[in-house]
Amino acid sequence: MSIEQQISNIKNEILDKADLIAVSKTRTIKEIKEAYNYGQLKFGENRVQEIVDKQSKLPDDIEWHMIGHLQKNKVKYIARFINLIHSLDRISLAKEIDKQAKKEERIINCLIQIKISKEDSKFGLKIEDFRHFYKSLGTYENINIIGLMGMATFTNDIELIDKEFKMIKRIYDEMASIDPKFKVLSIGMSDDYNIALKNGSNMIRIGSKIFGKRNY
Length: 216
Ligand SMILES: *Cc1c(COP(=O)(O)O)cnc(C)c1O
Known about the structure:
binds pyridoxal-5'-phosphate
């Protein structure tokens, strides 16, 4: 199926319940342009060098989302244009984003990434550390925390995925009730976005279902 058809199918499924972020990591400029020409304006990448390169070659009205683990020393390369950082998970990173945002005279929107899976490879803040972390962020004027991001375990166990999404939804609801800026719950990828939508996701990050299987 073509990129256009896949985007159209997903949009028909999600209607206006969620924002669709097309995850374009490893994809060519040509593939991204195909999605863009069809009207897709939000793209997610997980590597700084790749997002900077693509941003310079593609139209200015694209919204770029940083969805992968972010190293402090690379924040300076994306601070000028990044629309949303999904992977804020430590104070040292918050401090650097704030510093670079100030330099660019911008306020950068961020999601706090919560570790909901027990898999070792997943980054993110432990649930039990969340409240303390959130409180410590109050001092950073050039960061705007607008919600949470999470990645479920890579498994066929639907119940486990459902349980993990429910964990993050509970914190999200609690935060949204006290902080009016909280409005994004970024959960759901190609294989689990239906479970995420059932659990209140309003931003899904879809790569392989749009562009086909990645070769890594
Ligand atoms: C790669 C990636 C996605 C998209 O994965 P697919 O399974 O291809 O949809 C979503 N979120 C993050 C953080 C990713 O790294």
